[in-house]
Amino acid sequence: LPLLFQQDYESGVGLQGMTPFPKEMALGAANSPELAYKYGKSVALECRSLGINWVLHPVADLNMNPLNPIVNTRSVSDNPEKAVCLLSEQIKGLQDNSVAATIKHFPGDGIEELDQHLVMGINTLECDEWDRTYGKVYQELIDAGIESIMAGHIALPAYSRKLRPGIKDQEICPATLAPELLQDLLRGKMGFNGLIVSDATHMVGMTSAMPRRLQVPMAIAAGCDMFLFFNDPEEDFQFMMDGYCSGI
Q: What is the model's pTM?
C-alpha cells in the first residue's frame, strides 16, 4: 500500500500556481451538481500533482445558525437534501480521481455559537431531529461511499443519553472521546466502515474534557482510528503506550 499524504484543501490547494476556490457557501449558492463534481475533480488532480492522496474535507455541517463561528461560510447549505446533492458530487469528483475525501465535523456543527478551539461544542438537537438533518446528511454520504469521517469536539447529549442510559451530565464528552457516538451510533447504527480521524487534538473543546495523558489513549479507545496532531511526539507517544499498558 502507498503512504498516505494528507492535507486540508477546503478552498483548493493553497500554493502559487494552483487554483483557488471560494468556500462551500459559494458552491451552495451556485447550486450546480455538475459544478460540484468539477470542483472535487479539480482539487483532486492538483492534489495528486503534489502527491497528496487524502484530504480532510468537505465540510458536511449544516448552516442552521448564521452566527456560528466555525461553519457559517464553510457549509454548503442549511438544507439536508441540498447538502447531500452537492456534497455527494464533490466527494465523487475527489474519489473518482484517487483522492480519499473526509466529511466533518461529526456529529455536526452549525447549531450554536461556540468555537471548539475555545470550548466544547454542543449539538443540542433531539435524536429524531438530528436523524432528519445531520443524520440524514451523514447517512446518505456514508451510503454513497465516503472513505473518512472527522469526529469533532462536539457533544450530542440527546444521543449520549439514549445510548448510555444513566450517563451523568459531567460524563458527556465530545464525539472525539465518546464511544457511544463513534462506536454505537456511527459504526453501529449508521454502518460506517471507513476511517475515523479526530479533529485537531490541541483544541480546547477536547483538551478541557480530561488531562492529555488520558485524552490521547482514550480518543483511540473511543473509536478514532487516527489521532490528529501530536503536541510533543515523545510525550504523546508515551501517553499512548501508557494507555495501552494500563488497559485503556
A: 0.95
